[in-house]
């Protein structure tokens, strides 16, 4: 019988049952699409702990390192040779001295001006196996453009950390001097997904030397169930664009909300369009970016990208604290991402990155709460009546200080790409430019003017470096071709020798 006062009870129940019958297949198809886009399977049976800033991340890392009994695998784009970096160096050295296999991978370009050779020598002397990712090489003159931008730690193959934090005093801050800590986010993971993090480390470790023994890598089926959280470990590599495809798919499939935090946003045109399309479809799309930058051009580039978002209904906020370095996303209160990837072409296409995408309502709600807390210290950016980008209200006064010049190389690369896109749009007239891009046009014009004057008055200042670069690339290609040819001959000898050895064994 229909419920009293509700003549449509049967119809409502029919619609609810029909939606339940359709929802499960739709969720299956959505999960399949996420797996194919990211190139990462959904792994269940995990526990995930959200860690905010260095005050929660660093103590958890040091505690895990202190409790290690077999292996420690540590990968970081930058480890500063400062008080904080030496604290971690001491902890890693202490474990290496008692027989724990400690392996550390750092990025050559990231450490170029931040870490001394003595720092690495002391670690190696203590027994830590230290490797440098992609140092400048004669046979690869442009290899330095692709960097290891990952930040991860795995202890004993059962506890993993994926994060946006490098190791340095700026993340910890200095309360005694009134220096505020950088704002950043990471996670601690237990369960089957740790095996995927270890596999990601093993893959990049072998690019810098001898591979890890297969017997040391944990198998997902051997790790005990640690919780009910399902997640994907997205280990990005140059040119694969797995995270870019996933980010775009999330923007296209979000139904209620999509909240993004990014240290430097230079969205590709297609991704910007995906965010705008979601906002026009009623999705609450918000972007939180740093309010202060280490380079004046960076802020100009950042603001130049706001106009298209604001006109499309995306809400943009600038952080009012010291330095916002987090790279996170949360959608519909059920999906969230944390890791090292920025929303720019350098991270999507050029670098080795590591992120986790968590599909869990409780974790996503915690991410939403953290985002809303961050907005309390942020100023919203709006379009004025004259369609100029401006702040809707005064920013926290503490943001007036300029941040230290410690921005990552990926941000600089993304800035160059953003400048190139803006100048290209001006030259080809392919889109309307706004007042916020006036500084970019002036910067691009001045650079081209200086290059033109140099080309006219002192042409060798331009041709000589280009000629030297051409010689370097040519020599590098010839050297690599020789090495490959030599390796091919050696392989052919080995293959040719194998049948002879088998024949001799049969005769014996």
Q: What does this 3D model show about the protein?
A:
This protein has 508 residues and is α+β, with helices and mostly antiparallel strands. The protein is 47% helix and 19% strand. It is built from 16 helices and 16 strands. It has a 16-stranded mixed beta sheet, with helices on both faces. It is globular and about 85 Å long. About 3% of the residues have low confidence.
Give a short summary of the structure.
Helices cover 47% and strands 19% of the residues. The chain is of the alpha+beta class.
Write out key terms for the chains shown.
single chain; 508 residues; alpha+beta; 16-stranded mixed β-sheet; 16 helices; 16 strands; 47% helix; globular
| Estimated structural class | alpha+beta
Largest sheet: 16 strands, mixed
How many helices? The count is: 16
* Outline type: globular
| Radius of gyration from CA coordinates | 26 Å
Q: What ranges have pLDDT less than 50 throughout 5 or more consecutive residues?
A: 394-407
Number of strands: 16
Amino- and carboxy-terminal Cα gap: 90 Å
Q: Which strands sit side by side, in order, in the main sheet?
A: 4-3-2-5-6-7-1-8-14-13-12-9-10-11-15-16
- Helix percent reads 40-55%
**Estimated share of beta-strand residues:** 15-25%
Average pLDDT level:
83
